Amino acid sequence: MSEVVYGGGESLELDALAVYSHPDDAELTCAGTLLKLKSLGRRTGVVDVTRGEMGTRGTPEQRFEEAREAASIMRLDVRVNLEQPDGHVFVTDEARTALVRVIRSYKPKVILTAHWDDPHPDHAATARLVREAARLASMRRYDESEGQGSVPMPALAHAAYSRLVAPSFIVDISEFVEEKLSAILAHRSQFYDPKSKEPVTRISEQGFLQQLEARWRYAGSLINVAAGEAYYVREALNVADPVELLTRPMNIYS
């Protein structure tokens, strides 16, 4: 079962689709990239795998409305919630089928998602779920009952968040940092609020967003820009023109 939080119908084809576990994960991880893609005329979307109902702060209803507001800030074409159980994300056939149907509906060329070594179990499971569903979506005889038909397998890029994961590429998000922060802060139930009476969590601590921004600044420094979002691609990248690729400005100290 999936619920459309924001955006257009199933005939819309996307250039990039971000698939993350909880309603604020895409904002925290790849909102700058999604905003940049929109500025380039690309169609973008987000899939939230769960409603975030296990979260210490906020309610699923609050988080739904926050996700809708953040989607507007990021100018998404669509945002979908798979309504899988928060805290219990597993690579089940039900979850795979739900995501396959979304992939077939929106036909993304690229999927952005978490890394399989992420310490949060839901995030790690989502990365594996994406890899399996992306492949199954290309298999004609999988889930034939919906009559959607197979689609080409999208390219997959995983957030390179851990210091142990060397990025395959970094996206310059320097012009989009403020909008990224606005999209994150749309999830106001989850982040620092001196008036809140709810329990303090890691992400609601006062300095959390400053620490997060320092990560974007560090990633940006690796490519000589103000801020960046880093990704890891497991597959070998197919480069048509290595001269064009390698003569871009590079930071020799990175």
Q: Your description of this structure?
A:
The protein is an alpha/beta fold. It has a single domain (3-246), classed as LmbE-like (Rossmann fold, 3-Layer(aba) Sandwich), CATH 3.40.50. Helices cover 34% and strands 17% of the residues. The chain contains seven helices and eight strands; from the N terminus they run E-E-H-E-H-E-H-E-H-E-E-H-H-E-H. The protein has helices at 25-39, 60-73, 93-106, 121-136, 177-185, 208-221, 242-246; strands at 3-7, 16-20, 44-50, 78-84, 110-113, 155-159, 169-172, 228-232. An eight-stranded mixed β-sheet has the order 1-4-3-2-5-6-8-7, with helices on both faces. Strand 3 (44-50), helix 2 (60-73) and strand 4 form a beta-alpha-beta unit. The longest helix has 16 residues, at 121-136. It is globular and about 50 Å long. The mean pLDDT is 94.
